[in-house]
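Reviewers asked in the last cycle whether our approach scales beyond single polypeptides. To address this, we selected a multi-component target totalling 667 residues and predicted its structure end to end. The input consisted of the following lines:
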Amino acid sequence: MAMIREMGPRRTERVQMDRGATPNKSFDISTVTSWVRGRGVYVAFVVLVIFNLIVTPNFASIATLSTLLITVSPIVLVSLGVALAIGTEGIDLSVGSVMALASAFLPLYLGYGWPVGLSVALLVGALAGLVNGSLVAFVGVQPIIATLAMLVGGRGLAQIFAGGQSLLVTDPVVLWLGQGRPFGIPAPVIVAGVAVLVVWFLAKRTTFGRYVVAIGGNRSASFLSGHPVRRTLLAVYVISGLLAALAGIVATARLGASDPSNIGILIELSAITAVVVGGTPLSGGRVKVIGTVMGALLIQLISNTFIANNLPFTWAQVLTAAIILVAVYVQKGRGVA
Amino acid sequence: MSTRPADSGTTSGSLAWRERLFTTLQRRGAVVVLILVVAVSALAFDNFLTEQNLENIVLQGAFLGLIVVGMTFVIISGGIDLSVGSMLGLGGIIAAQTVQVFWPLALILPPLVCGLIGFGNGLLIAKAKMAPFIVTLAGLLGIRGLALALANERPIGIDTSSLFAWFGQGQVFGIAVPIVFVIVAFALGGLVLARTGYGRVIFAIGGSEESARLMGLPVDRTKVIAYTTSGALAGFAGALLAARLSAGDPNAGLAWELDAISAVVVGGTLLTGGVGSMSGSLAGVLLLSILQNLINQVGTLGSYAQQVVSGFFLIIVVVAQAYLTRKERS
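The resulting structure, written as structure tokens, was:
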């Protein structure tokens, strides 16, 4: 199933190219449009970079680049999990609240040393994912509702456990995760980069990744083919929970304090935007890891552009909305409905 | 009010009543739970059944209720509208900015503008065949941005002496005006959904869009009307809320789309479309409102616990629904 879906668009592309190739190999517009369709996010990103190079003062600097990469790291981390969930024709709205949960639990157990603190925070994320995944895989609750309940309830829980307070984090190892710069590269960027590689490998090079797109393509067919549908779904939501917890840890470390009221608020919207703009269809059956990263970079670059040029930030939101619509509309030719 | 068109007749006699019980519970579950919750709260809290408290509960749910009426149509048709919270914010801002010019404009323009945006959503969904989730997600972001930009990110005050304020704060026969509007909206919505051809088409599209199209039903037009209604109601709710609070707040209605979806789902409407009722949605709104009221009455629970209870409540309801639906099918 997954193979066929993968093959489909590529084959039509090739046919188009053959037809368009005239004997004198002249420039063919249909090849270009079909190429742009699949990679609209890259094109938009390049255009925005060029725009910035011309308009924004001091854009071409290491500082600008590192600000962009640091601010985008938490979004990239949660987007990867959301991309997997969307690949199975699901969704994970709870990522922001799971970030808050991890942030709330991290300082509570740091007294036992950083390994315990980090493990507990990650464990809480995995547990939240386990609850989401169980509801989706075993009870048959729709992903949007199961994770919506976690979105509403999770942040409340985080605030209860943190006592409604923001607690300082002083452990040097944890702080390094947010503020360290090994070889001049910010640590959050390294964390996000490693996560991208791991998820890319999982999605593209493992049986698990095949199962994910197979379930998203056609769940009943996947089940009838003997794929471990429930186990895979459970794993997807646990991974998403873990990644969100990691994002919560990084964000907390950057702040130097837990902040369950504000950390990760509304990040689910950025994540879904990044995934969709990156070319993963909401109807499942395909996961675009690198596209997702580019989508996250694109939306972060939009807001950075507005901030750098002292434009009202609210218009960045309007522009992002327009870009979502255009990106999805353009990609529709490739089956992104 | 009707739920699903053309119920299949029950087959075996001994199982028939159990089957019917499960079906009724799944569809009327929200109403049953609502009655139970009211009964228990009336016994547990002395001042629960006072006129004052009941009015508070209904008033609290009135603005959300208007949104829920539109959301019910959209969800039964198999779609979703995430933009309603932002529409409510925009509606309030438009009302606050036009009320000084000529106060009736503050009542007419918000539903008109938001209805137009909803119309745009509907066109993108029905004609351009884009996913409702994406289109209205873009709406959620863009419309909120627009509301914030129009208001310079600050709430705009409304003169309380204006006649417009009466629509939020006044009373008709002792009932607060927003409550009157929400009652009318639910009554009309229920009537349209259960007793008109338009309502039948909504159910048909939610059941199977492809079949509805093959039967020659006006699928595109019906969807566009549903999203337009949803937008217009959200804009109107925003205007009423602004009149109630004497201010248009660009951040009003933040995350209300989630509350509205919860209310509809708690009311027994399936997110997959094709099944649902307006009475269920009304019960859903009231349940959410009562839940909040009870948590306030207990007093020892903070706003954080409120979120946890809401999330937990939502899960219990959908798990029960999933269980009953499965029973019904087997």
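DSSP finds 15 helices and no strands in chain A. We regard this as preliminary and will revisit it once experimental data from Aim 1 are available.
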